[in-house]
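Milestone 3.1: sequence recovery, worked example.
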């Protein structure tokens, strides 16, 4: 203990925003080297290695074999899959002295598949499950929360190669059970939720989340057992509402109503209802956003939804990945005169629109919806 390299702190570090970050720094586990990049001190590295050991033991017990790829990777495999471009600004790109393009690996699917393609020449070589524990790199725009969102981080990634769908299902369950055993051994509370596969792709995806007050994900859970990351929540489409006896649609002048609240106030004053007052839920709100694609091109996107709801930006970005989304600015409105701020109705959008602007509608807005 007299020679142990450890430095504890009495006060919270100025750059630490979340409890886990504050505690790890104050306990002498990690030290910040750069934004989103951390050094491990002896106490922290002991824990790090123990966690890694548990993971490795459970993966090996499940019949998986460990490999190790370089972190510095050539451009060509990622060019073939399109992810050299799709990853956008998150990718660390560099050139060697000869001008050849390389990247710091954000994930290694391409390398795993190339290894199996090179070494496995027959279906008799399958099934096969291989994994690695390797450092990954992603150029996070706003690295924060200590180790929860870094530019350099360690990932255990594992891949199975099977000859049919039944084999794929067996491999998936084998990995799932290995993860359950791993989290049980680590003594962590966890919830298994449906998730988005993101840039990695795939037909089925689940996440093991540890419920804590501060993190980088949010999930929903119902008493019936349904659990999903908010990005992966699927909204059931309600049945269409009969509207044969409704009066024909027509245009009404609604001056000085640039917001939903002002529109509701106007409607209750000019078009009072007998059964109840108009509410925001009776209106249709069109939210205008600007989408930046992986190739740098920008295009407007309009989301139609009930007036009492908001667009979940994180959930939307998960659907549009690798594109990013931001709120439409004043300059954007000036460049798109067909979109009048505060007065954008479905007539200016949709299939018969001449604006050419993509229009997506919330599943709750079904045929016959009163808006």
């Amino acid at each position: 203990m007299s020679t142990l390299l450890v430095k504890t702190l009495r006060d919270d570090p100025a750059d630490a925003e979340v409890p886990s970050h504050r505690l790890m720094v104050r306990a002498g586990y990690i030290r910040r080297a750069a934004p989103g990049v951390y050094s491990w001190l002896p106490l922290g590295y002991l824990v790090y290695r123990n966690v890694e050991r548990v993971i490795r033991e459970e993966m090996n017990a499940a019949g998986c074999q460990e490999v190790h790829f370089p972190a510095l990777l050539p451009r060509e495999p990622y060019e073939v899959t399109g992810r050299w471009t799709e990853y956008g600004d998150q990718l660390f790109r560099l050139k060697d002295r000869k001008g050849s393009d390389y990247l710091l690996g954000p994930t290694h699917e391409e390398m795993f598949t190339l290894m199996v393609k090179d070494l496995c020449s027959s279906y008799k070589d399958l099934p096969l499950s291989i994994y690695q524990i390797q450092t990954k790199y992603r150029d996070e725009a706003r690295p924060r929360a200590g180790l929860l969102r870094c530019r350099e981080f360690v990932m255990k990634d594992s891949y199975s190669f099977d000859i049919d769908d039944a084999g794929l299902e067996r491999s998936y369950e084998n990995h799932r059970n290995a993860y359950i055993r791993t989290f049980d051994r680590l003594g962590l509370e966890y919830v298994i939720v449906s998730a988005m596969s993101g840039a990695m792709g795939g037909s089925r995806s689940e996440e093991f989340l540890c419920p804590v007050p501060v993190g980088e994900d949010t999930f929903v859970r119902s008493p019936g057992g349904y659990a999903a990351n908010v990005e992966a929540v699927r909204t059931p489409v309600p049945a269409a509402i009969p509207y044969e006896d409704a009066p024909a649609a027509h245009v009404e002048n609604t001056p000085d109503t640039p917001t939903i609240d002002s529109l509701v106030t106007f409607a209750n004053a000019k078009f009072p209802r007998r059964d109840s007052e108009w509410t925001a839920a009776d209106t249709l709100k069109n939210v205008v956003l600007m989408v930046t694609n992986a190739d740098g091109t920008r295009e407007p996107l309009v989301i139609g939804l009930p007036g009492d709801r908001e667009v979940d930006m994180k959930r939307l970005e998960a659907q549009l990945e690798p594109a990013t989304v931001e709120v439409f600015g004043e300059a954007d409105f000036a460049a798109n005169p067909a979109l009048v701020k505060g007065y954008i109705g479905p007539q200016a959008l949709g299939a018969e629109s001449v604006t050419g602007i993509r229009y997506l509608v919330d599943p709750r807005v079904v045929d016959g919806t009163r808006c």
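The chain has three domains: 19-184, 189-234, 260-361. The chain has a mean pLDDT of 90.
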